[in-house]
Specification:
By secondary structure, the chain is α/β, with parallel strands linked by helices. Helix content is about 60%, strand content about 10%. The protein starts with 15 loop residues before the first helix and ends in a 16-residue tail after the last helix. The structure holds adenosine-5'-triphosphate. InterPro entries: Kinesin-like_fam, Kinesin_motor_CS, Kinesin_motor_dom, Kinesin_motor_dom_sf, P-loop_NTPase.
Length: about 850
């Protein structure tokens, strides 16, 4: 609450209790001091208190209430018109000052009147002029004050009018405001005096006490009331006097202005007018200012109301908008809230679930952590232990390594010594074994020679490139050399595994030289006058040609044999004069073709005949060969002639028998005896069965022919094996040609070539069976063909053979035998062979040894 200027704080301090009493009390009642004193006196007889009404009466109280109302109105008005209310106190202050001045002037006027009356009573002229002067001054001052008063009143009137706009009873209240305030001031002064008296009375009452003092107080009160009434009367009288003085003054003024027109008065009048004008001007200015203020206030009010209206509208709009937005957002928020609720529910559920899981997981984690920590500790401890152990181990390892090195060095030395010893022993034993083996072989060979067995060598070729993938996939090869004499064929096509024994089994990795070593002795026995046949048997592609001819740079039996013969002949050239001749023929479809004869041949004309020195082919060309160059040229020509008439060389070669024959004529320079030997080197046709070839027509005929000659060979071998009286040599040209090589006066070697491939196992087995049968054949002890210079032919050829058609071998009768060798003998074979120059000292061949 704001404080109002010119109003004391106590003016606001309303006694509520008094007010209540006023409402309830009877206005016509006598002053209620006693009653109220009783009422306010406590039981102990405490000093009573007095209300406003008790002290100042009903009228004063009413005015006071009006004043309070006015103040409240002012406060309200101030709320509504802040500017106006602020002006009011200023105006009131000015008004009060004016009243004070007016009062002073009146009192001065009274004094002047008294003195004027006194002066009139004296009746002097000087007094009159002085009085007139004083009156004029006073009038002037009074007029000024009156003007100011009017101004203030008009100001107050305007304010009242403004306040009247606020309506109601405020107008009347504002009218009385000044007067009330003035009276209030007077009353305040009186009240102060009364309070003093009251305080004195209270002090007295306090000292006397009891009912007695109450009576005194009541008396004093009555006195005070009387005094107050007196004062009121005096006031009313004073007012009446003022009014009378005013009326008197106005009357005197009128009288003066009407009767006296002195210069002084005129001057004063002028001054008065000037002052009045000045005053009016000032009033006009103030009024203008006031109007401006009013306009400003109005404008402000208008602006304010407009603004208020605008604000109101805006507020309404904003309210509406906000309400709509609020509703919308409320809706959204509600929806979101619903969602959130749902989500919360879900989350809560999950949370509960998770919490339970977490709790268990947490427990597990904690437990795991504890276990893990323990494990880590254990592991760390174990690591430390292990490190220690490792260090110990390293140290021990180092020691051990050093020991090991020492031991190794010692061992290496020992091993070296032992190896040397062993090597010595091995070579010793090997030598021993070799000697023993040779002995055994010799004995075996002697047995064989005595028996005249066909010696059978088995050669297993390596796998061809095209066969590698097939056979190698299966793992081990089905045909395997188990030892130097045993070959094993694995079980294939429901046929049991089988082992074959031969005079020698050559494994795939054993080369041409090894094979030749096995036949070398037989080859060289030709120089001793023996008939030797070396034939390669086996299915097509089993390695027959490879074995007999051999590829370039790795010659087979043919070239090696001839080379050997030339070399040995050379070696014993001092004792023997040796000559060599050779022929190359082919038996194809049971026809003999001379491959050394170029041009067209009539196969029917070549046939095999039996001469005095054995089987021969009349008309077959024999060429003398002196060295390997002659042999190579001759073989080359034979191949060339073979390819001339053969349309398909490869097929042809597989289906024909190729026979290279070497005839040796050795004349003993000492006795003139002649040793005639014959070497057949035969590359037989493929031995596969007809069913396997699937041949038809000419091919079938061809196959049958091949089959016929090989069958005939088989028959001959079987007959020989069974020691039949009749040996069917004549069944084929081949067997007929080999009659003196497969008979009793010859040495025969069959090399059975086999393929190691799985796909050929069946044929391989057939070949091996055939060779096994051949091995059982006993031809009887071989005998050398020796033509003795004594007594003509000597023993000559047991088979009644003679030299082949164009044979360079000298006729049996052609030469005389040395002393003591009068006849040609087929008996003294071994002995005859063991001539000083006839045998190789190396004895490389197992069969020859
Ligand atoms: N011991 C071996 N070492 C290396 N290769 C060999 C051996 N034997 C045979 N061969 C190879 O096998 C293949 C067949 O050999 P080869 O021609 O000698 O058989 P074949 O029995 O004579 O056949 P055909 O009856 O058709 O004349 C050839 O390529 C040959 O080089």
């Amino acid at each position: 609450m704001c404080r109002r200027q010119g109003l004391a704080d106590e003016e606001y301090a309303l006694d509520d209790e008094d007010e209540d009493e006023h409402v309830e009390g009877d206005e016509d009642e006598e002053p209620l001091l006693v009653t109220r004193a009783h009422k306010h006196t406590n039981g102990n007889g405490a000093v009573p208190s007095y209300g406003y009404r008790d002290l100042f009466g009903k009228e004063a109280e009413m005015r006071r209430r009006q004043l309070i109302e006015v103040k409240m109105l002012r406060a309200e008005t101030d709320l509504q018109f802040p500017g106006c209310v602020e002006i009011i106190p200023q105006l009131q202050h000015e008004l009060r000052l004016l009243y004070e001045e007016t009062k002073d002037l009146r009192s001065q006027e009274d004094d002047t009147n008294h003195r004027s009356q006194d002066a009139h009573g004296d009746g002097g002229v000087n007094g009159s002029s002085e009085l007139v002067q004083q009156v004029a001054t006073l009038q002037k001052q009074l007029a000024a004050r009156d003007a100011k008063l009017r101004e203030a009143e008009s100001e107050a009137a305007r304010l009242r009018a403004r306040l009247a706009d606020t309506g109601g009873n405020r107008e009347s209240s504002s009218d009385e405001l000044q007067e009330l305030e003035y009276q209030l001031k007077e009353l305040k002064v009186t009240l102060a005096a009364k309070d003093k008296e009251l305080a004195t009375l209270r002090a007295k009452a306090g000292s006397t006490g009891g009912a007695e003092s109450n009576a005194q107080l009541a008396k004093q009160r009555d006195d005070a009331v009387q005094a107050r009434e007196l004062l009121q009367q005096q006031l009313a009288q004073a007012r009446a006097e003022v009014t009378a003085a005013e009326a008197n003054f106005r009357a005197q003024q009128e009288a003066l202005s009407a009767s006296t027109e002195s210069e002084q008065a005129k001057a004063l009048q002028k001054q008065l007018w000037a002052l009045t004008e000045q005053h009016n001007k000032r009033v006009a200015e103030l009024e203008a200012e006031m109007r401006q203020q009013k306009v400003l206030i109005k404008q402000l009010q208008t602006t304010k109301s407009d603004m208020m209206q605008d604000m109101k509208t805006k507020v309404e709009a904003v309210k509406a908008e906000s309400a709509a937005a609020y509703k919308a957002s409320l809706k959204t928020v509600q929806a979101q809230l619903d969602e959130l609720h749902a989500l919360r529910e879900g989350v809560l559920e999950e949370l509960l679930h998770f919490q339970s899981e977490c709790l268990s997981e947490k427990t597990i984690t904690q437990m795991t952590r504890v276990v893990r920590d323990k494990d880590i500790l254990r592991v760390r401890q174990a690591q430390q232990d292990l490190r220690k152990q490792l260090a110990d181990f390293d140290a021990r390892l180092k020691e051990s390594q050093e020991e090991v090195q020492t031991v190794r060095a010692e061992a290496a030395q020992t091993i070296r010594i032992k190896e040397l010893e062993a090597a010595g022993q091995i070579s010793h034993f090997r030598e021993k074994w070799r000697v023993e083996f040779d002995k055994r072989r010799k004995l075996h060979n002697t047995v064989l020679e005595l028996k005249g067995n066909i010696r059978v060598l088995c050669r297993v070729r390596p796998l061809l490139e095209k066969e590698r993938s097939v056979t190698a996939n299966g793992g081990e090869m089905p045909v395997k050399a188990m030892s130097e004499e045993v070959l094993r064929v694995a079980a294939v096509d429901n046929k049991a595994e089988k082992e074959f024994e031969f005079d020698r089994v050559l494994a795939p990795d054993e080369g041409q030289d090894k094979l030749y070593d096995e036949v070398a002795a037989l080859v060289t026995s030709v120089l001793d006058g023996f008939n030797v046949a070396i034939m390669a048997y086996g299915q097509t592609g089993s390695g027959k040609t490879y074995t007999m001819e051999g590829p370039e740079g790795n010659p087979g039996v043919n070239l090696r044999a001839l080379g050997d013969l030339f070399r040995i002949a050379e070696e014993r050239a001092s004792a023997f004069t040796t000559t060599f001749s050779a022929s190359v023929l082919e038996i194809y479809n049971e026809q003999i073709y001379d491959l050394l004869m170029s041009g067209a041949q009539d196969g029917d004309k070549l046939d095999v005949k039996q001469g005095p020195e054995g089987m021969y082919v009349p008309g077959l060309k024999l060429e003398e060969v002196k060295d390997m160059a002659d042999v190579t040229a001759m073989i080359g020509r034979g191949k060339s002639n073979r390819s001339t008439y053969a349309t398909n060389m490869n097929e042809h070669s597989s289906r024909s028998h190729l026979v290279l024959s070497v005839y040796v004529n050795s004349v003993n320079k000492l006795n003139g005896n002649i040793l005639r030997g014959k070497l057949h080197l035969i590359d037989l046709a493929g031995s596969e069965r007809l069913s396997r070839t699937g041949a038809q027509g000419d091919r079938l005929k061809e196959a049958q022919a091949i089959n016929k000659s090989l069958s005939a060979l088989g028959d001959v071998i079987q007959a020989l094996q069974q020691r039949n009286a009749h040996i069917p040599y004549r069944n084929s040209k081949l067997t007929r040609l080999l009659e003196d090589s497969l008979g009793g006066n010859s040495k025969c070697v069959m090399i059975v070539n086999v393929s190691p491939a799985t796909e050929n196992v069946s044929e391989t087995k057939c070949s091996l069976e055939f060779a096994s049968r051949a091995r059982k054949v006993e031809l009887g002890r071989a005998r050398a063909n020796v033509v003795s210079t004594e007594g003509g032919n000597g023993n000559g050829s047991g088979s009644g053979g003679g030299a082949t058609g164009a044979s360079p071998i000298p006729p049996r009768s052609g030469r005389a035998t040395p002393a003591g060798e009068g006849t040609m003998s087929r008996v003294g074979s071994r002995e005859a062979m063991s001539t000083p120059v006839g045998r190789r000292s190396t004895g490389a061949s197992s069969l020859g040894r």
